[in-house]
Condensation domain protein (Chroococcidiopsis thermalis), 516 residues
Amino acid sequence: MKDINARIAALSPEQRALFEMRLKQKGLNSATIQSISKRKDTNSLPLSFNQQMLWFLHQLAPQSPVYNIPVAILLEGQLNVKALEQSLNQIRQRHEVLQTCFQMVEGQPMQERVADLTLEMPVIDLQEFAESKQQELVQKLAKQEAQCPFDISREPLLRVKLLRLRETKYVMLFTMHHIVSDAWSRGVIIRELAALYKAICSNQPSPLAELPIQYADFAAWQREWLQGEVLESQLSYWKKQLEGKLPVINLPTDKPRTDVQTFQGARRSLILPESLTKELKSFSQQQEVTLFTTLLAGFYILINWYTQQEDILVGTDVANRTWAETEVLIGFFINQLVLRTKVSDNSNFQEFLMQVREVTLGAYSHQSLPFSKLVEVINPARDLSRNPIFQVKFVLQNTPMPPLEIAGLTITVLDDVDNGTVPLDLLLDMIETDKGMAAMLRYNTDLFNVNSIDNMLKNLVQVLTTIIQNPTSTILEIKNNLTSFNRKQTESHKNQRKASEYQSLKKIKRKEVFLQ
């Protein structure tokens, strides 16, 4: 074991990142075995770096739901409503972060515990309505709940409502603020909910082990750990990656950009052909890169085609739970990474893929620097109409949560609820579903029309198809193929419109005119 640890320690940052990625692909735990100590002052609830950044962003738009995390959960079977409510309250009691609000204390944002109130779960009965009407009301209520802002200065940042469709069918609307949770937290909650519900229904004690630390312990530890040599080793990488004038992606928009960034958003999605999904996975394995890297490389080419810019910055999310103690916690751990790549027309795709791979591995090896700290150090020229550093994000969601069956109850997480916002110009989510790979594009509706977004999704599929069909193509050849594809699409639409107009003319009845 010592020899293995020594060999791992001798790996370069890029090799270490690739090693950890391969472990994750095999479903193995690659979390760092490192002790995060509990904070000495248990009454102190410090903010993490990213919590502090989100607090400031919230002050700019306190009535916006942009940082709400809504989840809809389908519950089928004989539901014990009281046991469900008790389970939720035990989760809130276990996780200190769900008992807090955020207030200004001596000019600084601080966490404070909310009075120990019982979490209430209102039940809305929809049984009297027909199934079609129920679906309409569920969507309406889910959207209302997702769009209802939190007052983070005074209320618990967790809300739950239960919609009763039948005696054996319910939908639970679960909403948290991002400042106390993230996507990983959703999985933690659902697993704990299942375990606690089963125990309560069986009159058994909680089967959950005591949490090793609380989120505030991590926040206090992070501030002590991220300084000196640790901080400098992270910063030196990012300073080099982001040196010089940072490029601003200038995507062609349908509407003029407003002076101050807005967060009005919508989403469009498209399912990739099953054969293309399989080929992308197979190709990635052959090239010894992750599926994320292949898809990201295709996305870079798409952006380059739209903007004609070579130097491109794209953001992405990482779970940032590389410490073993953090895996079981609810909290805001997720971090944003900046992936900077130059797209050259003369490179063939396989060469470009290796370039993207190196950028990705380097970023993952230096993922511990909070994005808020990076913005503070880089100090980019601020533009109130745009997000700092990057305006476009790419995320691969490849950890779907299967239905859980407990105590005669099936728990299924439904598709993400749309809260009608987006924090950037564009956010592309590639999602592995039971129906295949889906591309979901969230976009700012104050910048783009729906037709432009639908075309962008089609163009993405075309780029990925070209890559698979001929991976030795140059970037220029891939883009020329895309231009030709769009020209044919335009001509096809024109012909369809003309045919439609002709058919309409044929239906016009001739009016007889008699000459006297």
The chain has a mean pLDDT of 89. The chain has 14 helices and 14 strands. The first strand starts at residue 68 and ends at 77. The CA atoms of residues 251 and 455 lie 14 Å apart.
